[in-house]
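Lab channel / #folding
Pinned by the channel admin:
"Please post every new chain as: sequence first, then the structure tokens as a reply. Keep commentary short and put observations after the output so the thread stays searchable."

First post following the new format, from NK:
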Amino acid sequence: MELCGHATLAAAHVIWEQGVAPLNRLLRFFSRSGLLSAWKENEWITLDFPAEPSVVADPPPGLAEALGAVPAWVGKNRFDYLGVFESADEVKSLRPDFSRLARIPARGVIVTAPGTGQGQDFVSRFFAPALGIDEDQVTGSAHCALGPYWSSRLHKDVLVGFQASERGGTVRVSVLGERVAIAGQAVTVMCGDLCM
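Reply from TO:
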């Protein structure tokens, strides 16, 4: 993967939880998207990622049919299409045709709408069936596009997004020019030993 929030967040969490580095240590990861950093503040892990703003684009053929709805605005960045809807309810009620969505020429499709006003600036979902992930639960890298889009639209640099998947999750996003700081949480659910 060019850029993966799951892997970066999980790696940082394990490094701190296993005592490989002290909790106050800034971690740096060298990736296909350049240098990524992580730091811990209470229960939140913040990742420093590159901003991936979307530019207005023609919807690819079949996008509306695959989503089952027509976005009010469509953009694209180097990874994904971004479809903007008018309401959170529209985003939450989408029932995509994943076989059609897998034919969209992109890593994935992000859908988003304004938040519900309950401490959420925006809601989103992320679909990547071409990668074998029909719907991702919480997608850090998608917020590299969501942050710049909503920052520009809402005229604020610090945002709270809710990814409205089945499990769902809150992501804090700070837009810092060509970078975004994405904060999320991690929980260890399994430990084990591998014997060879």
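NK: DSSP finds five helices and twelve strands in the chain.
TO: also worth noting, The first helix runs from residue 5 to 17.
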